Amino acid sequence: MHLFVIGLSHKTAPVYVREKLAFPEGCLPDALCSLKEYSEIMECCILSTCNRTEVYAVTEGRGGEDAVLEFLSDVCGMAGSEFASMLYVRRGHKAVEHLFGVAAGLDSMIIGEDQILGQVKDAFRCGVKCKSTGTVLNELFKHAITTGKRARSETDISKGALSVGCAVVALAETVLSGLDGRSVLIIGAGKMAEITARHLRSAGVLDVAVANRTHSRAVKLAEKLNGRVVSFASLDDELVNADMVVGSTGASEHILDRSRIEKICGMRGGRRLLLVDIAVPRDFDPEAASVPGVHLYGIDDLQNYVECYSAERAKEVEKVRDIVAEETHKFNEWMRTLESVPLIKAIRAKLEGIRDAEWERVLTKLSHLSESDLNAVRMAMQSLINRISHHPIVTLKEYAVSDEGTEKMAIAKELFGIDDEEVLPKADLDDKRPADG
Predict the structure, then answer these.
(1) CA neighbours within 13 Å on the CB side: how many for 399?
(2) Predicted TM-score of the model (pTM)
(3) Any idea which residues carry the catalytic annotation?
(4) What is the DSSP secondary-structure string of 374-405?
């Protein structure tokens, strides 16, 4: 087996590329079903957030990487050559280490932010529901979630509950010269919208309005924020009066295009309008930035506002890396035990074959026995097989995680007379080639 991840993030690709490869929550099941149709893919799971899209996969061989690249190309409608340089590839233990680091918050825009762990859990749940994961990815994501929890409970990497919402506040305070008494319109009612709105409210925003295509979700969020609900039908009226608008929907197309924003600005009497787009794909037409009086910022523009928040957490990075390394080692040991499974099955099959042959050979000589006595003999033979095989099986599992595992298992195959073709290919855990990116 070959375990790998192919992806891109805010560190390697701009938002205009990331949005083309983003998988909104409602589209993820169909995407997984499409990916599973590739014959090379044995297991797969997709982690898609505003800052990253990553495909984790288990395949028979390296050809599976090409299948994932073809899949991504089809999704974004771009030739692979147009975005290949922005992708990173991690194989074997490097893929494991990468996911564990992501879950721990080491690869986030704000180091240690909490939302990514929930997104990893959501990706895993979707994979399980769609039956696209299996033995390897199920264990991988369980370990990743454990790693993320340990990082947050055993270190101060998440101290202060910082998030993208903090960066939005810092940006807004700079552009609007403070937030006291300001009015904000939140378009979207998901987790990111809620986190951002809470930070804005804490920073002094007086009026919070929430608009969402699903009215009930808007009502629920507005109640949490002591805000009010705005229907999409009256969105323009609200835009005329708001000081700031935050876009955080899962829409696949722009909620506000340039012409609409230009028309609205013409009704604001020269007052500037701050638009903060934290959605991927983007909610606001980037061309709106050229409209006089409009200050448009996207998710990537927040980077300059998060560095001050990350400074204290950076001191915890080495502690978290130690946790990631420890959990990666545990998973790698588990992964290596998979190498012993085909050999163990082959040994059991050989012993049971000998048992069956002996049973057939002596059965005619036992015709005088009752059925209960025959069953007793069968059970005794099976017990003998179990006792004979127990110690070798335990020892083979120990061999698998030792430095000389390959050599020792080769000796075991010879001792039990197991042919190579009786044993499936071993797991491709430690890739000798350097990872791309």
Answers:
(1) 20
(2) 0.77
(3) 50
(4) HHHHHHHHHHHHHHHHHHHHHHHHHHHTSTTH
